[in-house]
Amino acid sequence: MDDIIQSTLMFVLIVEIILGCFGNGFIALVNCLDWVKRRQISAVNQLLTALAFSRISLLLTVLTVISVSVLYSDMEVTRRLIKLINFPLLFSNHFSMWFAACLSLFYFLKIANFSNTIFVYLKTRVNQVVSGTLLMSLALLFLNTLLINSYIDAKMGGYRGYLFNDFSSNNSAEFYRVILIINDGIFTSIPFTFSQLTFLLLIFSLWRHHKKMQQHGRRGRDAYANAHIKALKTMITHALLCAIFFLALLMQTWRTELMDIIYIRLCQIAAAAFPSGHSCVLILGNTKLRQAFLSVLWWMRCRLKNVHPKCF
């Protein structure tokens, strides 16, 4: 029975990863083709493209690790192998989270309106603020890598064991749990908190604008309120998926009797919903991407209609 459950969860996870790769690949392809055509690309499309590539890298890395865990479960583990597995995951997850956080920051600075002097200064320099945020995140990436590599060197030593068959042992479970706490509990929490903060501030900005409109006796939505609501529709889904992603990562660090392969797979499925599902939200929330997606669906419909005319 456990084998059937594990196989089912594995299948769901792989399908989720493949769909995520297609969704993010579509975003990257449309923006790159538009860049080649127009010879220029906007700041928001630069962020979307970079975010798509980082998530493709993350999903493919996770898929590779999962494939190795299934096909080579008896592989002997060494310090070098652990580092080779950990660094691509750490690197791609870092940029996936920070590009998403910077996208939220970009929407917030472009749409929100506060009279605070610091905010006005940042609002007039949106591109520089986003670039500076990404550059500062590199320092966190360096520190994260340094801490995890130091921990691996200190704990592994000359140890040799089996990569996945030995995971259920207390020593192995504790080893991987500490790595998750360093990477996810500490460093992933920073862009997560950053994203949630910009989301809450944008809601507060909309509330202030609505209150001001009521004081002036105006009803209904104006263009400014519509811009807030459009951005919030995208950011609400981002905030929820990001929260699920972060909680799924944290759940893997809990010491519990359920810490077996089924529990891990469920956490992985929940975590993969963020880089996979958020691409669909970005496509539907962006006019250019949505039109391109509908054009692809229409083209596929016409192709199928030519082959199987009775289907439509």
Radius of gyration: 22 Å
Q: How much helicity do the residues have?
A: over 70%
The tally of strands reads 2
Give the termini separation.
Answer: 42 Å
SSE order:
HHEHHHEHHHH
Mean pLDDT: 79
**Strand order, sheet with most strands:** 1-2
Structural class: mainly alpha
Low-confidence stretches: 162-168, 308-312
Helix count from the secondary structure assignment:
9
Oligomer: single chain
Largest sheet, strands/sense/barrel? 2 strands, antiparallel
Strand content: under 5%
Shape: globular
Task: Report on the architecture of this protein.
This protein is mainly alpha-helical. It is 83% helix and 1% strand. It is built from nine helices and two strands. It has helices at 2-38, 43-71, 79-111, 117-123, 126-156, 170-215, 223-251, 261-285, 287-307; strands spanning 76-77, 161-162. A two-stranded antiparallel sheet has the order 1-2. α2 runs antiparallel to α3 (79-111) and α8 crosses α9 (287-307). The longest helix has 46 residues, at 170-215. The radius of gyration is 22 Å and the shape is globular. The model is unreliable at 162-168 and 308-312 (pLDDT under 50). It is a multi-pass membrane protein. GO terms for molecular function: bitter taste receptor activity; G protein-coupled receptor activity. It is found in: Membrane. Belongs to the G-protein coupled receptor T2R family. This is Taste receptor type 2.
